[in-house]
Every structure is written in structure tokens, then in C-alpha cells.
């Protein structure tokens, strides 16, 4: 296990310690979230889960966790998920694994949303990280054209579909001075179904650097 993987596991273990019997837990997607899923399974709590991707659902079930269909769920107690970049005020970019739309739904449904990460994910500025945008395939060309003013360049992921059957375009070189404006502008383009900017959803983060876990809490939750 690399140091980075060890830190992912430490952050995941710390977050999973918040989980209690009878909770409904949102399972994130990606390599860090996978450590949380494994840690949850190891604890053998009396919990149920919902998953933000088919991959996480399959992993959780293979480890013996109960995974409910989120379509039948209105709220979640705690969601635990990774991030591609997270800043000091708990704003994040997610979606390198293409799961950002379901992740945002589950994060918003959760009373408490916890990000887990190794220290490489700390970011002074979010704009240095590519921003994934999920797009209705029908609107592909139209949306890419409308995205152009907001990014230095955009790249469509080749031969790729999300669990929702959509395509993903990664936007590089974006102005992170007013991310709320970018988030609103993206969602105002018909055919954009989601994006990886998480500006208000995250309540806490456990970030592990070289074996030391730091917990960050949102001081004032504007939701
Ligand atoms: O779509 C993927 C998710 O947003 C992941 O949570 C994110 O990309 C972090 O993944 P990892 O823990 O593998 O770096």
C-alpha cells in the first residue's frame, strides 16, 4: 500500500467512526470511498446504505452491506464520499470517476455530507482541477459550444457513458473567482444534467496527510 493509499484509508476509517446503528448511509464512489465501504462492512453495524454508482453498490453488496434503491429514498443520515480537490472552506470538485450527478443527489439528501481525502486533494484554488460536466448525449454539440466561454478548453471523454447513460465533458482552465456564477451558468444550459462543483453540500472533511488526520467542519451551513 502506498502512503497515499494509507492516508485514504485513515481518512475513511475516521469518517466511518461517525456511523451508528440504524443509520441510512450514502456510499460515495472512487478509490477513497471504497476504503469507507470496506471499513463500514468491517464494523458490522445494523445499517442500510444507498450507493452513488453501480460500482459502489456492487462492492458494498459483495462485502455484505444492505444497499437500498435510492429511488425509494428521500433522506439519508450521513453520506461519505471522496473528492478530486477540496479547499479550506469545504468547496470541492468531484466527478473524475463520472459519478458526480448521483453523488450530488445523495449529498443533498444527506443530513451530513463528509468528504474523505488524502492530502493531495487539498487545493488553494479549485480552478486548477478539471471540472467534469454531465451532458445529455442528444445535446452534445450544442452544450459543448455553450461551454466554450467558461473554459480554456473542453474535452469529451471518449467512448464513455455515466451510469445514467450520459456523456461527460471535462472543462480545463476555469475561473474559480466566482464558482457560484459558473455553477449557475452551467445548470442554465439545457442539456447539462450535472457538474462536479460542490459548493454548499459538504458539511465536514477528514483529510489525512502522512498518517495525520485533520477534521474540517463547515462553520455555517448555508443550505
Ligand atoms: O466521480 C467520482 C467521484 O467524484 C470521486 O469521489 C472522486 O473522483 C474521488 O475519487 P478518488 O477517491 O478515487 O480520488
UniProtKB/TrEMBL annotation:
Q: Main EC class of this protein?
A: isomerase
Q: Which reaction does it catalyse?
A: aldehydo-D-ribose 5-phosphate = D-ribulose 5-phosphate
The biological process GO terms on file are:
D-ribose metabolic process; pentose-phosphate shunt, non-oxidative branch
Q: Which GO terms describe its molecular function?
A: ribose-5-phosphate isomerase activity
* Record's keyword annotation contains Transferase: no
A single Pfam family, by name?
Rib_5-P_isom_A
For this UniProt record, the keywords arranged alphabetically read as follows:
Isomerase
Q: Show the GO cellular component annotation of the record.
A: cytosol
**E.C. numbers:** 5.3.1.6
The record, for CDD domains, names: RPI_A
Q: Does the keyword Isomerase apply?
A: yes
Q: Which SUPFAM superfamilies match?
A: D-ribose-5-phosphate isomerase (RpiA), lid domain, NagB/RpiA/CoA transferase-like
Q: Give the protein's recorded name.
A: Ribose 5-phosphate isomerase A
